[in-house]
What we know:
The protein is an alpha/beta fold. 38% of the residues lie in helices and 20% in strands. Helix 9 (280-288) packs across helix 10 (292-316) and helix 10 crosses helix 12.
Amino acid sequence: xxxxxxxxxxxxxxxxxxxxxxxxxxxxxxxxxxxxxxxxxxxxxxxxxxxxxxxxxxxxxxxxxxxxxxxxxxxxxxxxxxxxxxxxxxxxxxxxxxxxxxxxxxxxxxxxxxxxxxxxxxxxxxxxxxxxxxxxxxxxxxxxxxxxxxxxxxxxxxxxxxxxxxxxxxxxxxxxxxxxxxxxxxxxxxxxxxxxxxxxxxxxxxxxxxxxxxxxxxxxxxxxxxxxxxxxxxxxxxxxxxxxxxxxxxxxxxxxxxxxxxxxxxxxxxxxxxxxxxxxxxxxxxxxxxxxxxxxxxxxxxxxxxxxxxxxxxxxxxxxxxxxxxxxxxxxxxxxxxxxxxxxxxxxxxxxxxxxxxxxxxxxxxxxxxxxxxxxxxxxxxxxxxxxxxxxxxxxx
Length: 397
């Protein structure tokens, strides 16, 4: 069964094509910095690979480029998109319509109605799903909601201190996100260490960021709450923020609520603090050259990671492993170093030489470190591919 998996981040689009159940990868590609003047595009299909820079205005355009790459008469792996048995989406938020679901009008309407909660994610996902559903009505679409993995979180770690009917009637609670990534990391680190009872803090750091506390691969807490704007600072989204600051800002700036929410969703996070860029690579370069705001943004980012990391080690009663993943987690030596700095009290003994030499899966603590720290590239797409096959199998049975 050939499955196309579409993974839409807030400023990125990644895809992979798998032949299951063998889990053979036929192709992969992606685009990052969507919406900027120069978007980076890449594709790998067999021995063919290509990288180029072009302007990609939105996610709908990214989906069209993906389909063009896969069906290219010379380099593509498909003669026609109809060869795909199913398309799986790493979808983000549909409230109580969580888990893994066949895409239908009810789900799309629910996602669209909750666009205010996930403005960077739900609209492009819903548009892409509608576009593909209309273009290929015979191919089932599957939504693997990120919130599904976190349904195991205990109620006391999910509830907000608000009137209980807000949760029961309006679905206001800590939903948690990045479920596919954390699910993969929980399973993969268990395989690496050959244990199924690990206490793990998974640090997914990229365009958007979250930490997840897991026991035996099961989610116990996630730093993202009701929306993907919460928790850690993100590339251009605020993270944790006191809502009672909003009336102050409305009076001081003359902006209305919608305008301020737009600022919090698109002009905040690393971008807002630095005034320079939403990309850690740019900020590290600027900080090294003496840019104080870039340095401050990176320090605030690390401080938030450490805040949740310490809390989640308390939730778990300690940790057996801490795992860095995502574009920042896998590639930023500085962030990993600063997060682990002076954590010997917690059993973390970083080996800086190992941290500098990371390539793929790698342990970056000393051999005698009580808590192991690993860098493990995530594979959200294979998780969604497996879930897609299972969902389609139920559909056919």
